Amino acid sequence: LARERSLASFTARQLTHLLDGGQEHTEHIESIRRLLDREAVFDRIHSYHLNHEDMYLRGLQMMERFRALCVKHQWSSKDTAVAYREIYEGMPTILNDDLFVKTIKEQATDEQQARWLPLATNWAILGCYAQTEMAHGSNVRGIETTATFLPESDELELNSPTLTSVKWWPGALGKTANVALVMAQLVLADGSRAGVFPFMVQIRSFADHKLLPGVETGDIGPKIGFNAIDNGYLSLKNVRIPRSNMLMRHVELTRDGQLKRRGQNDQRHVYGTLLYARVNIVADAMMALAQGTTIATRYSLVRRQFSHAESNSNAATEVVVLDHQSQQHRVLVPICEAYAFHFTGQRMHELYRRLTSPGLSADTAAALLAKAHASASALKPYVTDVASHSLETLRRACGGHGYSRFSGLPDLFTFYVQFNTVEGENHIMAQQAARALLKRY
Amino acid sequence: LARERSLASFTARQLTHLLDGGQEHTEHIESIRRLLDREAVFDRIHSYHLNHEDMYLRGLQMMERFRALCVKHQWSSKDTAVAYREIYEGMPTILNDDLFVKTIKEQATDEQQARWLPLATNWAILGCYAQTEMAHGSNVRGIETTATFLPESDELELNSPTLTSVKWWPGALGKTANVALVMAQLVLADGSRAGVFPFMVQIRSFADHKLLPGVETGDIGPKIGFNAIDNGYLSLKNVRIPRSNMLMRHVELTRDGQLKRRGQNDQRHVYGTLLYARVNIVADAMMALAQGTTIATRYSLVRRQFSHAESNSNAATEVVVLDHQSQQHRVLVPICEAYAFHFTGQRMHELYRRLTSPGLSADTAAALLAKAHASASALKPYVTDVASHSLETLRRACGGHGYSRFSGLPDLFTFYVQFNTVEGENHIMAQQAARALLKRY
């Protein structure tokens, strides 16, 4: 390794700074990395012998230490994000700290945010985002769960009217969360349907974590990866919440049961959270490929097989496999992809920042949104498909050793492939990108 | 399903007979299937909650019931093969019943076969095939384990001289097997190396299964799949076996330490076992794809998503996803591959039967071997790469549900992908196929 590194015209350290965005950022990341390295629970080696149920228990132990570090070192939300990225493994609270908090910030009124955000960021409540149903994924408008307005009591009553309407897949829903942001069809007093909106629903007691009346939930079982997370199901029967638990930043359900739009019809609010998730997926592909290529490259420099002179083939004279052209093709192409996706991800983040900056004219905002939506729709499926394929290529490039979980490559693949499906299934995304391109002609 | 089936111009039953090779064979398979279905231990649903260690214990339970059925119903080796195929899951004895027995048949003398085969087929001994070493896989000639001839005692002494020479990966070696066919460099009395040959080495006591002196072994740990198998490591230190434990059908190590070739230099003996393994891999790709496409097709006929008229999208009017063209592309292509690989596999089996039939002239045998070797070298990597990719395509085609192990698709993929690596790594095979093609010009 030292020999190979000495051949570069720059130092590994310089490259690290470039990728991290400067020496200061590298040192920040490393300071958090050092704290994590001192905690035995974050050592992944323990996880390879665990089944799903024990993986989840390990997830809870990780949460406990994570929280302790948060408090002790007074981590900012940026510190927390760095720590999650460094751990790079499912932990049930990621759903609270990322998707749940993000949705509140985008969809809740200032008053609602003041009520919920401090609780969520301090884990006084643990939330999850419950959208997908057993029979309803990509087609959000097909969601069957209902939230019916009850004028007498000024409440909303939530129901899962059918088996197919049961919420299925939300992370942290099965065992961890005590509140859920439930996406449901709003049914007005006259029985008309007004669309799908998020509702804040307490599902478990804050005292003893027992399920509240009318709530049925549980873990949906082992998955190919991501097994520290309790993806869950949720069936609701006549569960009532105050009207003020409907997230109403962009719409208002009035006391007399009228649904009104607030302010301009700014599409950025509708697509903001999803777009943010897709931008992150594009940017994070680099993480998976960076880890995979690091493992495979190191292996390829240590592993020797075959000698160039075929006649006298033994260990002493065998060549390092990275000197075989076919191995270079398998390892170097994914390295290029990792760099390409890193800088692509930075551009997407920049675009998202411009889109969400205050004071944009309506026209500029609309144009930027169209561009960001089209780019994310094209890049999300492309990047995840390429990265998944390359992770499997890298796994195979390590021969038998790549089949062992101790190599790290199997878990990288089984964790990563979910990104082909979540936050906009790849085939649907590609069709949206195609539609955006066709519109230009 | 019934509606879709009624549209075909033939019955599903007719097609089953065609694939099985006639009604008689279908009924034979089904009679064994019925026996297996009565045994709870073969129900795969139990396996999804188990870690590697518990999967292995389940493997032992399966072995126990498998043996009981074997004895009770007096299964022939053909019945046994059908049963293994129906179970289609790793079971530690597959290494004994397939690779171990096969190697004895091809490499041992008649006298040796008479000694070992009855023991192996009755599980009086449980064998494994120990070739791959920690640092030596594709390059068999690089194997470091030594078997040194000791003229005084007429014995061979086996040693693992280095860390890199430790046997690594052989299935059933870690805990199950009590004998191993160890591939090692034969070292003659004058210190010269005479090549790599198989040696029968007892590694555990037949009385209490404890390791014999000089033998160190164990399980190499959790893998991405195939976790009911105890892939193992093996380090040997001054382990002695009688000279008669060297498999000597095609060579003879004489009492005075001379190595002699027996009979014609028939290359069929050198490549027979490996070729057989590759032919089976080509033929078995159909099994994995048949299971995967069955699951994905049924899902695609039950799952509904999006309506053609976009404006009024709800569950009642949503279309079955198989009616979306993109879903057809994902599911129907692998179905075609399954059929293509089935008939390709049949052709390869036929070629192998001709190659191994008695009474061929030397020229015919050489020509058939060249053809079979080239075909297997081309087809093995092609078929396994395509099938692996399609299994992942099918998994994704089931959306979120494909990420759940309960769908069956994750385990199908993680089990299957080993075939890209074993029995001739795909890149090496493709290069051999290319070499065979270039030779023709």
TrEMBL record, chains A, B:
Cofactor names: FAD
Pfam families, sorted: ACOX_C_alpha1, Acyl-CoA_ox_N
GO CC, any one term: peroxisome
Keywords: FAD, Fatty acid metabolism, Flavoprotein, Lipid metabolism, Oxidoreductase, Peroxisome
Annotated Acyl-coenzyme A oxidase N-terminal domain residues: 13-125
Gene3D superfamilies noted in UniProt: Acyl-CoA dehydrogenase/oxidase, N-terminal domain (1.10.540.10), Butyryl-CoA Dehydrogenase, subunit A, domain 2 (2.40.110.10), Butyryl-CoA Dehydrogenase, subunit A, domain 3 (1.20.140.10)
Main localization (coarse): other
Subcellular location: Peroxisome
Sample GO molecular function, one term: acyl-CoA oxidase activity
A biological process from GO: lipid homeostasis
InterPro entries in the record: ACOX_C_alpha1, Acyl-CoA_ox_N, Acyl-CoA_Oxase/DH_mid-dom_sf, Acyl-CoA_oxidase, AcylCo_DH-like_C, AcylCoA_DH/ox_N_sf, AcylCoA_DH/oxidase_NM_dom_sf
Highest taxon, organism lineage: Eukaryota
Record field: catalytic activity: a 2,3-saturated acyl-CoA + O2 = a (2E)-enoyl-CoA + H2O2
Domain Acyl-CoA oxidase C-alpha1: 271-438
Pathway: Lipid metabolism; peroxisomal fatty acid beta-oxidation
E.C. number: 1.3.3.6
PANTHER family in the cross-refs: ELECTRON TRANSPORT OXIDOREDUCTASE, PEROXISOMAL ACYL-COENZYME A OXIDASE 1
Family to which this protein belongs: Belongs to the acyl-CoA oxidase family.
Name of the protein described by the UniProt record: acyl-CoA oxidase
Organism: Syncephalis pseudoplumigaleata
Native organism taxonomy: Eukaryota, Fungi, Fungi incertae sedis, Zoopagomycota, Zoopagomycotina
